[in-house]
Amino acid sequence: MSSENRTVTGTTRSALQAGLLMFVGVVLAACTTTTVDEFRQGETGIESHESIVILGRRQGSSYETREEFVDCVGDRVARGARGIRVIPEKEFIDSMFPWFEPRTAPLRTSDLQTLMEEQLVADKIAEYGIRYIIWLDGQTETTNRAGSISCAVGPGGGGCFGFGSWEDDSNFDARVWDVSSFANVGTISTDATGQSYVPAVVVPIPLIARVEANACNSLASQLQQFVNGD
Amino acid sequence: MLKNLALLCGAALLSACGASSLVVSGSYPSPNVGQMPLTLGVYYDEELRNFTYVEYSETGKEEYRIASGQTHIELFDTVLPAMFANVVVLNDLDSAPSARVDAVFAPSIEEFQLALPQKTRLDSYEVWVKYNMRLLGPNGEYIADWVMTSYGKTPLATLRSTDAGINDATVGALRDLGSSFALSFDSVPEVREWLAAQQ
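Above: the input entities. Below: the structure tokens describing the complete assembly.
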């Protein structure tokens, strides 16, 4: 085979790979629907020397807001030209111990006001320059599992055959507390749903809907605008 | 060669049959609470130091041996110095008068419960612990005796092993104990009376 032919074959393969990636991307994007609602109850805005902390609610008996989701929202809120300084959740909870543990964390803004009467707590909050405390509450549930995949291995090789699908539903609320006024200044809710598929003809091809990642992106972007007062 | 292989197989089989041992480890933050100008003696008895909970399978076989005595001591060694001006660890209760302590604190574990997702069909590891807390005078006289409970849970995650799940849930329960102990110590009626008498 001449070098010219090899180049043409290589280009064709690259084009096919790019096409396949694009197809997968389109399929993935098409699988998720995200809705974001904002309910504003007060004016917002943040100075460059101020920061926010995003905390997960963990009081519920049936579920708790995952640490990974809280970190994801925090990372995205801190990104970009309008990025906000975000205090990492673990660092904040440890340095405020024992006031923000699941059993002791304030549930209402009036509890925060009472808590701020503790000089040690008020000093720590001031040290971090925290203007807003944002409480994330929610979870991702998997429902409507259907189908089955069977795999077999023999002397001549192995393979899988079948089809599986499920639906993921992410529901998260972010309540924004203004530390300077002890008021709830707004709530942002996000609801993302998506169907994932795994067709298997010899090799299983997972087409996973990135439901929680989309919920995180949408919520973080809205939260950044909300806190900046845009 | 064959003998070594047989020994290796034997060891692997035996380890597969035995209970899985876990020594709980974690780190605990120092609480942000007001410090009392008192010297507290603390006595950790052998039962607490070596506390091990054994979880049995449905057929009655030992499944997990969870040693949490040392991590309890680490928790108290972190929490107590933030609450009291001086803390003295006592090797026995008889040494309290010579240590010039205002009181002796002696915690003990009464009950430990573990809930594994494979048994409960829930999506989390859960640990519940019941404690008996005793506060004694330097000469062993009764000051207070109260019960505390703590709870910790950690969600089931794809890449988290059972050992890590149990460890994290236990550390969560200990953090819960540390936080409620630090915040509720002076709310125990007998303790409150004793503190008032110390002023």
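Note for the figure: DSSP finds six helices and eight strands in chain B.
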